[in-house]
Design brief:
This protein is of the alpha+beta class and 380 residues long. It folds into 2 domains: 14-345, no CATH class; 350-380, no CATH class. The chain has helices spanning 2-22, 28-54, 57-62, 69-95, 115-136, 143-166, 183-190, 283-288, 308-312, 328-333, and strands spanning 209-210, 221-222, 224-225, 239-244, 251-254, 258-259, 266-273, 293-302, 322-327, 357-361, 366-371. A hairpin with a 4-residue loop joins strand 10 and strand 11. Helix 1 (2-22) runs parallel beside helix 4 (69-95). It is globular, with a radius of gyration of 23 Å. The chain starts with a helix and ends in a 9-residue tail after the last strand. The structure holds 2-acetamido-2-deoxy-beta-D-glucopyranose (3 copies). InterPro entries: Ferritin-like_SF (IPR009078). Residues 326-349 are annotated as: Disordered.
Length: 380
């Protein structure tokens, strides 16, 4: 079953790319964009693979997950998607008579240091993947390639939401709009993940890093670092540019007082410029008119709207996580009178409580429920 699914999925890209593209002029910019997208997908696939090989169940529960099954189910699907995306893009390159870039090596040690670091990094990576395809879209002239890229974009957006949830601090869908990032901007963020040279034929803007510890919230004064901000530049004359999804342009504040304003939520890209002119939402403009750019972007998240969905996955929010055995009938009726219950159990939200996670039927017809510490409304 699984195998035939993979074969079908791999056959599809050839069908998508084969006929129309061979008849077209070879668009070298489109090939560059496909190579770039392929390398990002190679990185994502290897990153999830490295994380899943490294962590054991207790690493996930130590990091606060109610159960390792929650992240592992999602990471397995996402890793498979990224592998298929890479095959898909490589078949597109083959149809253009181009070879993929397979020589890039990735530095995954720091990003997979522990589960918390990994999920936080994965959230950046998935948001970056969405921003990268959005930013590359205007550069792809061929509608067939554009549609193929869009079919990856919609799936990266699902991954993005999942990682917004799994990384534990954000909201699942924080904004009605995502931020497009031009290829040189994506490479500024991705550069620290490359182990050695990775020549994609696209220059990277200088990497910018946030040196603050802890969450970024309204009022946080960001401290920013880049090799491009050095003795040759007067910091007093620089500007910090913050851009969020749906904003027509960046919020500009002095570099030395880069305070996050109130009223923001979601992913935020930050640049440093030598000019107080705001940067436009339009990434084509930023890629082209970059003479005032000093460094960046870097990406962070302003998390001001905590969500129940996110909190549900965390053991600390469930109080004591308990496990009890109830019959299948009890589970479906929601009566929860079980063997020794102080909990009411159903398959939805209990009165004053949160959903339970069924872990399947046992041999004696009872199901094991990984539950939450909720009070029985019957007063038990
Ligand atoms: C210092 O910054 C300038 C311009 O931002 C850059 O051209 C130069 O390479 C930087 N020097 C070092 C040592 O990184
Ligand atoms: C869990 O429920 C029990 C019984 O109602 C209660 O004594 C205990 O304090 C609860 N624990 C938490 C962390 O809420
Ligand atoms: C409920 O029963 C299980 C299995 O018999 C036992 O391990 C657990 O301690 C009991 N819990 C309570 C709250 O009595």
């Amino acid at each position: 079953m699984y195998k035939s699914f993979v074969v079908l999925a791999l056959a599809a890209p050839f069908a998508v790319f084969a006929a129309p593209i061979n008849k077209r002029q070879t668009p070298s910019l489109a090939a560059t964009v496909l190579k770039f997208a392929d390398v990002l997908n190679q990185f994502e696939a290897q990153f999830y693979q490295a994380a899943m090989s490294k962590f054991v169940d207790s690493d996930y529960t130590d990091a606060g997950f109610v159960s390792s099954r929650i992240p592992l189910e999602q990471f397995t699907i996402i890793q498979n998607d990224e592998t298929l995306h890479s095959s898909f893009l490589q078949s597109g390159l083959a149809a253009l008579g181009e070879s993929p870039v397979t020589s890039c090596k990735f530095n995954l040690d720091a990003a997979t240091k522990d589960v918390a670091t990994m999920t936080a990094t994965a959230r950046v990576v998935e948001n970056l993947a969405v921003s990268a395809i959005l930013g590359a879209a205007p550069l792809v002239g061929d509608p067939v390639i554009l549609q193929a890229a869009a079919s990856i974009l919609t799936v990266e957006a699902k991954h993005q939401s999942m990682l917004n949830v799994l990384s534990s601090t954000g909201s699942s869908i924080p904004s009605a709009f995502d931020i497009p990032l031009a290829p040189s901007e994506v490479l500024a963020i991705a550069a620290p993940f490359f182990d050695g040279p990775c020549d994609l034929g696209i220059p990277a803007f200088p990497t910018l890093t946030i040196t603050n510890d802890g969450p970024v919230t309204p009022g946080t004064k960001l401290t920013l670092k880049s090799d491009a901000i050095n003795g040759t530049i007067c910091e007093d004359e620089l500007f910090c540019q913050m851009l969020l999804g749906g904003f027509p342009n960046s919020i500009t504040v002095p570099f030395n007082n880069c305070v996050v304003p109130a009223g923001l939520n979601g992913p935020m890209a930050i640049w440093v410029t030598s000019d107080e002119q705001p940067l436009l939402f339009n990434s084509v403009d930023r890629q082209t008119n970059n003479n005032k750019l000093v460094a960046g972007p870097t990406m962070t998240f302003v998390d001001t709207q905590p969500q129940t969905l996110v909190q549900m996955l965390r053991a600390e929010n469930a109080g004591t996580v308990t496990s009890k055995v109830i019959t299948g009938g009890e589970a479906s009726s929601g009566s929860g009178s079980g063997t020794n219950s102080t909990s009411s159990v159903n398959n939805g939200v209990t009165d004053g409580g949160v959903p339970v996670l069924t872990t399947g039927f046992s041999a004696d017809g009872k199901i094991n429920v990984l539950g939450w510490n909720v009070t029985d409304p019957q007063g038990q």
